[in-house]
Amino acid sequence: MNLAKINPLNLPSLPLNERSHLPKCSAIYFVMQGEDVLYIGKTTNLAQRLTAHNRQKQFTKLSSDICIAWLECNDTKLLKQIEEALIDLFKPLLNGTTNPDASKRVNLTLPHIVYEDLEAWAEYQGRPTANLAAYLVESAIREAKEKGEFRILEKSNKETQNETSSSSKDKKDK
């Protein structure tokens, strides 16, 4: 495949606000604003990836005329290589930049059998294992809050500073 001949404007595409109609295929996707390529990514499930993209907020802030174009790729082993080559070719504005709305990452250590079950469940759903794990943790926290099993600690910086000052003052008084 000659990647230099790929024109995202000639690929299938949908407006960003219609992303729920994207196919569930493995693909390289292009986030476009008019003729400009803003971002290039890879996925094994296009519909799912663009439903919960970590740059979704950033894309929607840019403009209302954002669209998603995609190049279907049945050989998932080639996705990373093709993505890197296309990023090098098009030099999209947002690739390689810090995402101000990025989610926080956490590493989990799971018993082997739990990981195997999680991986099988994710595969059954056609989503990455880490994506399913994040969803499950988020759901569990939301449920715990709803049941009152979770106390939210919200302190402003001023309250924290006052407590620190009071603590220091108490120590001096003793």
Can you offer a commentary on this structure?
The protein is α+β, with helices and mostly antiparallel strands and 174 residues long. It has 6 helices and 4 strands, in the order βββααβαααα. The protein is globular and about 55 Å long. It starts with 12 loop residues before the first strand and ends with a helix.
Strand order of the largest sheet: 1-4-2-3
| Terminus-to-terminus distance | 77 Å
In percent terms, what proportion of residues is strand? 5-15%
Low confidence ranges: 156-160, 163-174
Name a few traits of the molecule:
single chain; 174 residues; alpha+beta; 6 helices; 14% strand
Note the topology.
Elements: E1 13-15, E2 27-33, E3 36-43, H1 46-51, H2 56-62, E4 66-72, H3 79-90, H4 112-125, H5 129-146, H6 157-173
Helix pairs in contact: 4-5
Quick rundown:
The protein is of the alpha+beta class.
